Amino acid sequence: MHRITSASAADLFDIAATRRIEQAAASALPPHTLMQRAGLAAARLAMALAPHARTIWIACGPGNNGGDGFEAAAQLRHRGFFPVVTFVDDEGRLPADAKASLQRARDAGVTFASAPPSSFELAMDALLGIGSTRPPSGAMAEWLARMHASASPVLSIDVPSGLDADTGMRASNPNQAPASVRATLTFLTLKPGLFTAQGRDAAGTVWFDDLGCSAFAQERPTARLAGAPDIQPRTHASHKGSYGDVAVIGGASGMAGAALLAGSAALHAGAGRVFVGLLDPRAAPVDTSQPELMLRDAHALDLAGMTVVCGCGGGDAVRELLPRVLSTAAALVLDADALNAIAVDPSLQAQLVARGQAGAPTVLTPHPLEAARLLGDTTGGVQANRLAAARALASRFGVVTVLKGSGTVIADAGDEPPVINSTGNARLATAGTGDVLAGMIGAALAMRRPAFEAACEAVWQHGRIADLWPADAAPLTAGSLARRAPD
Ligand SMILES: NC(=O)C1=CN([C@@H]2O[C@H](COP(=O)(O)OP(=O)(O)OC[C@H]3O[C@@H](n4cnc5c(N)ncnc54)[C@H](O)[C@@H]3O)[C@@H](O)[C@H]2O)[C@@H](O)CC1
Ligand SMILES: Nc1ncnc2c1ncn2[C@@H]1O[C@H](COP(=O)(O)OP(=O)(O)O)[C@@H](O)[C@H]1O
Ligand SMILES: [K+]
């Protein structure tokens, strides 16, 4: 068993692949082995989370997830703990494995109750796992509400009940703020839904136990969890030309800040030279707080050979420059208003596709609403399956797509499984942090990183800066994020 951190890369498997792996493992092992291993692992983690617990409440559901809970209860009782089990359903309908574990819990002297204990030091959610098919209701919903409203830690078994393990969509209580420590112990495979959309809030800290079955995980991963990128050392004899030029195009009237943020981020991410082409004709000729940025009139910038970051604060004015940007930029990041312009213009879409066909790298950085506009969908439709939405955009336009939000998804147009980023937090939910990300990706492209790697690395670093933000420092702003340090 080990804790999943943002430093480690890992393969993710959807429910269908997990079922195949489970079948392969179960058929090679003596009956009941997997559930015994799962229950023992759950009991061990429960003891580590609440070593002095007097009462551990274990809520068990009607399938094998409930079986894991019965098994954990038996193991805890054997170790001198006092688990109280509530069981949601009719014993006669339990699958065979779960029935055997129920018997083992009874034999161990576990207390069974019809209602949750009045106080408990840890709650274990063993109601629904990967077999969840509809929103929890009745006693199940009441028990979930009860455990999540309590100040005691909640340990979810395999998957937080009601969370779609493939998509990270939660059947109910989508905006519920965690009242306490949350952890999820997931078995056999890591599931994508634990790491994106509502998954991160629902799961809390993710622990993984392969139940000794990694040899059976001979499946193609559905997605991958990004790990820490390799630091690319700089050679002594390098010079500013070695790290490439970035041109930011944006900053229409009243929105110069967005382009300056992207420029600042590119600079601090290590680009050799950064030009900021502003669309506002009345913009100041220099940013005295960042004199390294070379400010230009966007229309006068020569883009040949450049890595271009286009759209930050671009307003409607960015539209007229897009045909030149799409045909000239050596590498390109399209953000914000550039994406909105492309979403409503088939000729720009055709140009974008042509770039991909010509082998010119492009990264799109939509948030869910921008992605929805590009796909002709709704924000809800995009969020309902973020992996699929990112993949659809990447293959439709022949680009790398960075679908932003909690658990940013990075997909490319080829066969590679998409990546889910594991850094970042809600400190980033403040205006301008997307402009900063676009600038960081631009810098990585200017350093000649392949587009998919550039996007994965920059997204990871962007979230990492937010994760390392000191709790006692001033709140993160986009400007300080770009400079990578609190003011
Ligand atoms: N079979 C085994 O040996 C193993 C099973 N494992 C556990 O088994 C789980 C999968 O087991 P199952 O396939 O039985 O699936 P679940 O235990 O997730 O639940 C399936 C059952 O819940 C019902 N159900 C679904 N949604 C419901 C709702 N909203 N309200 C009420 N009932 C609902 C279904 O009709 C079905 O009876 C995994 O998540 C994992 O916890 C793992 O421990 C690995 C080993
Ligand atoms: N709750 C969150 N958890 C993780 N990342 C977040 C969260 N909220 C925002 N972000 C990140 O912050 C950035 C916001 O970008 P965007 O929505 O384009 O904002 P803006 O247009 O104001 O710059 C994205 O990289 C997004 O992934
Ligand atoms: K569960």
Automatic annotation (TrEMBL):
Protein name, as recorded:
Bifunctional NAD(P)H-hydrate repair enzyme
Keywords recorded for this protein, A-Z:
ATP-binding, Isomerase, Kinase, Lyase, Metal-binding, Multifunctional enzyme, NAD, NADP, Nucleotide-binding, Potassium, Transferase
List its EC numbers.
4.2.1.136, 5.1.99.6
Q: Which taxonomic lineage does the organism of this UniProt entry have?
A: Bacteria, Pseudomonadati, Pseudomonadota, Betaproteobacteria, Burkholderiales
Say which family it is in. Answer: Belongs to the NnrD/CARKD family.
Q: Where is the signal peptide?
A: none
An example of a GO molecular function for this protein is:
ATP binding
CDD domains, alphabetically? YXKO-related
Note on how the cofactor is bound: Binds 1 potassium ion per subunit.
Family annotation (PROSITE patterns):
YJEF_C_2 (PS01050), YJEF_C_3 (PS51383), YJEF_N (PS51385)
Per its database record, what is this protein's job? Catalyzes the epimerization of the S- and R-forms of NAD(P)HX, a damaged form of NAD(P)H that is a result of enzymatic or heat-dependent hydration. This is a prerequisite for the S-specific NAD(P)H-hydrate dehydratase to allow the repair of both epimers of NAD(P)HX.
Give the catalysed reaction(s), semicolon-separated: (6R)-NADHX = (6S)-NADHX; (6S)-NADPHX + ADP = AMP + phosphate + NADPH + H(+); (6R)-NADPHX = (6S)-NADPHX; (6S)-NADHX + ADP = AMP + phosphate + NADH + H(+)
Residue stretches making up the YjeF C-terminal domain: 223-487
Q: Which GO terms describe its biological process?
A: metabolite repair; nicotinamide nucleotide metabolic process
